[in-house]
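Notes taken during the Thursday session

The instructor put the following on the board and asked us to keep it in front of us for the whole hour. The protein is beta-N-acetylhexosaminidase. We were told not to look anything up and to reason only from what is written here. First, the residues (559 in total):
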Amino acid sequence: MLLLAAGCQSSPPAPAPTTSAPASARPTPPAGSSPAQRAAALAGTLSDEDLVGQVLMPYAYGSSATDVTPGNKAGNQQLAGVDTPAEMVARYRLGGLILVGFSADDPTSQNQGTTNVDSPQQVRGLTTGLQAASAKLAAGSAPLLIGTDQEYGVVTRIKTGVTALPSAMGAGAAGDPRLTEAAWRAAGDELAALGVNVDFAPVADVLGNAGSSVIGSRSFGADPTQVSAQVAGAVRGLQASGVAATLKHFPGHGHTAGDSHDALPGLGQSRASLDRGDLPPFVAGIGAGAKLVMSGHLDVKAIDPGTPATFSRKVLTDLLRGQLGFQGVVVTDGMNMAPAKRWPAGEAAVRALNAGNDLLLMPDKLPEAYNGLLSGLRVGDLSRARLVEAVTRVLTLRFELAGGAAPEMSTVGSAAHREAAAKLAAAAVTQLRGACGTALRGPVQVTAAGGRDTARGWLVEALRAAGVQVVTSGGTVVHLVGYGDGQGDLRKGAAVTVAMDTPYLLAKSDSPVLLATYSSSQPSMAALAAVLAGKTPAKGRSPVPVTGLPRSSCTAQAG
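Then, after some discussion, the predicted structure tokens were revealed:
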């Protein structure tokens, strides 16, 4: 239905297929040149068409670079006038491509047009094919940027066969940046093995609004100092594996209730409040060496009222570049989201570049965005100096990521990685009501709100492995709730209620014991089982305040 509806719209013609520059014709920077020097030398030789392509990072239909189903072919034709992802890379001389996907609990699924991440082997094949297509281009001496949103928790694109980490909020509850760094190092190793070299994570938003369903457990918590330490740990972990980290959503999406996929949320804080409450994690992430910052579709009223931050020179160039000193790549949030679609795709692309973005993510209409940038360059709406500056940053990042060989596929889901995830998950489990350290007595029945059967099954399996008798009726009831659940999803009279997302709903539960895992992953369910079986204490502390409940009901961590 989406394709049929989109097919009624007209788009400007796609650019003609490119003719690849032979390797011998590409500039050869002096031996020992830095990535920035190589990037500047290469950018100085590129045609207008190649320059424009470098700042675009669309998605494509298909789980292979060259072999697609008829439906995916139709999707690519509608999106870009090509049949395959490899043809998209070649025709538009792309600097990058994002891998997409969605699930039922994903608050970002609105702008994910397809799913092309099925399994580790499939993703590795796709990325290998994309790199082969990119290598034939004029900028092909640097690896293509291949990114995805692998935040863990509710926004996790690649799920099958990889190590599952707890959500960011789970890491915040654990409160140990060393555990976070180790877990995210494992995540980086696995992404690198799959051929993904950019992760659009971690989320650096400080959660100041309990009603935020779009950020929620994607945030490390409500305290700027603690969030800063967690963000820095995640950045260090990812980038130690050669995967570029991205801080999002600048200058902070956590104090809004609105969803920037659908409308333009307003940030009403004063500039002093932004400095104290929203910017510190971005500063910490930049200090840890984050290679990208994602601009948010946010109305920052204290700086540039009425203009989405993505299109605000005051926010991106004056604040992020000038005051915070960020020198890496600024990437937009999805240009197919509502606040970016207030302008035609070509005009929006020019506006975003002029504001200070270097890379445009998921253009709404790729041919229009490409031709709009090309036209803007030629009529003077987009200066060559600004475009070359953006391209040089993108190419610098590409050369920085051109290091050693990717890890072996055997590293994906390895025992060492599972252990790092398990340690973080175990440290995250939080008890917010009830005496700590008391094992469940008698048979246990595990129930869950609708759609939580996978997590419920993992918990049942882990409880039985821990020696707890689990029954299908009667017994002591442990009830699970997760993302998007409300008061009607609670079970009256349950002995234990567990929040597998943000813990706010626990304030409405009548259970004598309240626990939070902040995540419904298998490691989180195993950690929960260990607490319920009395084999380990609940060591976490809620990283957000919950009305009427302590951060932990365990004496040593109460408060």
